[in-house]
Every structure is written in C-alpha cells, then in structure tokens.
Design a protein that fits this description.
Blueprint lengths: L1 E5 L5 E4 L1 H7 L3 H4 L4 H4 L6 H12 L4 E3 L10 E3 L5 E4 L2 E10 L2 E10 L1 H88 L3 H10 L2 H34 L6 E3 L1 H16 L3 E6 L6 E3 L1 H18 L4 E10 L2 E8 L29 H11 L3 E7 L3 E9 L11
Parallel strand pairs: 9-11
Antiparallel strand pairs: 1-2, 1-7, 3-6, 4-5, 6-7, 8-10, 11-12, 12-14, 13-14
Helix pairs in contact: 5-7, 8-9, 9-10
The structure holds adenosine-5'-triphosphate (ATP) and magnesium ion (MG).
Protein name: histidine kinase
Organism: Metapseudomonas furukawaii
Catalytic activity: ATP + protein L-histidine = ADP + protein N-phospho-L-histidine
Length: about 400
C-alpha cells in the first residue's frame, strides 16, 4: 500500500518506499512540491472533490477502482520492472500534527483483487451458461416425459387390445369348433332326410337313424347352439363395452337432472335385480349436473348389476343421491358378499373379474372409472367382506371453465 503525507495545501511531506519503488520518483526532490506537480495526472475533478470532502468537511474520501481505475500513475512493479499499477482504491483523510491540519493519501493496489474479481465474474458467467444448459436439459426431459406418457398411453391401449383379443379368443374358439361339429351333424341329418325318398322300408330308415346316433345328435345340437349363443353374447358385450370406451368423448356435456336417468336405468336392469334384491331409492336433493347423462347412467347400471351379482340369495340394494360443496354424488350400496381387501386395488383394471367364465368380462368398473374421470369426478368404494359394499360416485356440478354452479 502506498502512503503519501500532504500538508494543508497538498504539498508533499513524505511518502513510503512503495511510492518510491512504484513511481520511480525521488522523494527528496518531491518534498515540498504540490501533489499535482509531481503527479500531474492526479489533477482531476475527482481529486478536487476528494480534497473538498477531506479539507472542508473533515471527512474521509474514498474512491473505488471501479469508478476510477487510478488516481496517480505508478508504472513499475515491486522489482522495478515495468508493470503499471492502474487499479487503485484510494483514501484521502485529514489528521492533525503539531496543531497543523495534514492529509494522508492511501493507495491500495487492487490489481490482484480485480483480477480475482474478473475470474469470479467469469465463473459466474460460466455458471449462468451452465444453468441455461440445465434449463435446456430440463426442457428436453419434459419433452421426453410427455413422449413417455404418450407411449404409456399407447402401451395401455396395447394392453387393452391384448386383453380384448384374449377375451374374445375363447368364445370365438368354441363357437368356431361348435360350428364345425354342427356342420357334421347337419350333414348326417341331411343324409337321413335324403334317405326318406330312397329307402324301401321304414325299418331301413330307422336303422340308418340309429347308426347316425340321432338321439345323441339331437341332445348335442341343442347344447351346442345354446353354448354358441352364449359365446356370441359375450363377444357382443365386450364389443359394446369397447364401443362405449371409444365413444366417451363424442357426446356433449350438458346440464341434466340425474334422477330420471337413474330411474330409467333401474327399469332397464330390473330383470337382473328383481330376483336378487329389494331395491330401495333414497334420493336426496340433487341440483342439475353438467354431464353426459347416458354415460352416467351406464356407470349406475354397472354398479347396480355388480351389486346384484354380489348378493348370493336375496338381499337389498340401496340407491342414494345428494350434493355437497359443488359436487353431486350417487351411491349404490348392497349387502352382498363384499370385496376381499387383497383385490380391492384391482377392481378398476380392465378384464379384472372374480366371476366365473361367461359371467363377467371385468370391463364394468374399468369403463365406469374412465367415464367418471372424463367428468372430472372420482369413485369411492368401501367394502366389508361378508357385509356388503358401497360405491359412491362424485361428480362436479359444473365442468371447468363453464361458470359457477347455481345450486
Ligand atoms: N358390489 C360389489 N360387491 C362385491 N364385489 C364387487 C362389487 N362390484 C365389483 N366387485 C368386484 O370387482 C370385480 C370387477 O368388477 P367389474 O364390474 O369391473 O367386472 P365384472 O362385474 O366382473 O364384469 P362385467 O361388469 O364386465 O360384466 C368383480 O368381478 C367383483 O369381484
Ligand atoms: Mg360388473
């Protein structure tokens, strides 16, 4: 650090060896000279302002190297080599000596500091561009994530398709093999009928009938036709459920009173219910709900049929409704056999069923879940094995972006 002592008129009194070394000037010839004569470059408005502050106000005056890289030029390095010291912070302060007002001028070499400052700035800059890189990376990740979601959706569709193929394969398989057997039977029967015109005696015809095992054919034909009908029925059910899956977005949402829809659904499934349960309606106060009513009826139907299937002999099914805080709910409760906790998390999976082959496709709840989700709602289930099950469907009264509920 350089120190220059000045009298009240800014004449040089003394300086330290730092100044001698760095300025290359001789102290002895400088003493008594005005500062700006020895260092003409210091004669600046900045120095005038510092002097003003220190002499007239008695304050410390400080300059920062950023505002003013140098006050006086010090062209040499510590070993006398040419190495201009241009970055200086300076301090001019007043003090008293033997009753005289004097000044000290301190010159800090901030070259190193400024250099590390530059390095810091460069490092910060590098960090900034690193951050940009990271942001870019995050954007890429987000994009990849979206693609992944898309491919997951595709995978889910693939899974559904594989499930459908598997489910349809079985009934189609036996309908096909039944058809083959039936065509063999029809051949035999046609032979028998054709023989009617050609045979000589009734006995001959009876003989042919016995040899073709007519009694067996007769029994089997009925069974085969019945079984094939069941198989086709099953395929039809799967196809109509799939159609519902794919048409979910086609219909428009509109305001509807759910109760008439629930009543007509009850009528529709009455055949399935009436031998299994007494149906109790406990409708509450239900404002109009913005929904696709046919889809909601479909959900109610699935829940009602499930409830009936859960009842082993004869039980009770209760259909309730109500609303709360901008949400409508409908509820189907049965006192059937309940759902085992170990499978509770699987009931919404497509093709998950505990029902015997031919009875359930396992699409009912999967479809219902899908519909309710499209409505922005949710399904709650609570079940106690041996006691019964309660499904509650919550639906928002209004779809987002369509104004406030008026309920
Ligand atoms: N109310 C209920 N009581 C007991 N178990 C139920 C009830 N509702 C659903 N389940 C269980 O959830 C499973 C899945 O139901 P889901 O409606 O999806 O298929 P499913 O009824 O078996 O066949 P589908 O409805 O396609 O004819 C059922 O097989 C059954 O084990
Ligand atoms: Mg079902």
């Amino acid at each position: 650090m350089g120190v220059i002592l000045l009298d009240r008129d800014l004449h040089i009194l003394h300086w330290n060896t730092f100044i001698t070394q760095r300025s290359g000037k001789d102290l002895a010839s400088a003493i008594g000279q005005p500062l700006v004569t020895v260092f003409p470059e210091a004669d600046t408005p900045r120095l005038a302002a510092m002097v003003d502050k220190a002499r007239d106000q008695g304050l410390h005056a400080y300059t920062h190297w950023r505002e003013d890289p140098y006050l006086i030029q010090l062209p040499y390095g510590p070993q006398g080599q040419v190495n201009p010291l241009r970055l200086q912070s300076t301090l001019l302060f007043p003090f008293e000596s033997d009753g005289q007002r004097c000044f000290g001028l301190l010159l800090y070499d901030t070259t190193e500091f400024a250099r590390s400052n530059d390095q810091l700035a460069a490092a910060l800059n590098a960090l900034g561009s690193k951050q940009q890189e990271q942001e870019q990376l995050i954007r890429k990740l987000e994009k990849a994530n979206a693609q992944l979601l898309q491919s997951e959706k595709l995978a889910a569709i693939g899974q559904l398709a594989a499930g459908v193929a598997h489910e349809i394969n079985n009934p189609i398989g036996y309908v096909f093999s039944n058809l083959k057997t039936l065509s063999g039977y029809v051949n035999d029967l046609l032979r028998l009928v054709d023989a009617v015109d050609g045979v000589g005696s009734l006995e001959e015809l009876q003989q042919l009938k016995r040899s073709l095992e007519y009694d067996y054919i007769r029994n089997d034909v009925e069974a085969l036709i019945h079984e094939s009908g069941d198989g086709i029925e099953r395929v039809k059910k799967i196809i109509s459920a799939l159609k519902d899956f794919s048409h979910i977005e086609e219909e428009e949402f509109h305001l509807a009173d759910l109760h008439p829809g629930l009543d007509s659904t009850l009528n529709l499934v009455n055949n399935e219910l009436k031998y299994k349960a007494e149906v109790i309606r406990e409708y509450g106060d239900l404002p109009q709900v913005e929904c696709i009513p046919s889809q909601i009826n479909q959900v109610a139907m699935n829940l009602l049929i499930n409830a009936a299937h859960a009842i082993e002999t004869f039980g009770r099914i209760t259909l309730r409704s109500g609303h709360q805080d901008g949400w409508a709910w409908i509820e189907v409760e049965d006192n059937g056999k309940g759902i085992d906790p170990s499978i509770l998390h699987r009931i919404y999976e497509p093709f998950f069923t505990t029902k015997p082959v031919g009875r359930g496709t396992g699409l009912g709840l999967a479809l219902s879940y899908n519909i309710v989700q499209k409505h922005g709602g949710r399904i709650e289930v609570s079940s106690r094995p041996g006691q019964g099950t309660r499904f509650r469907v919550w639906l928002p009264l209004r779809q987002p972006g369509c104004g406030e509920p008026t309920a």
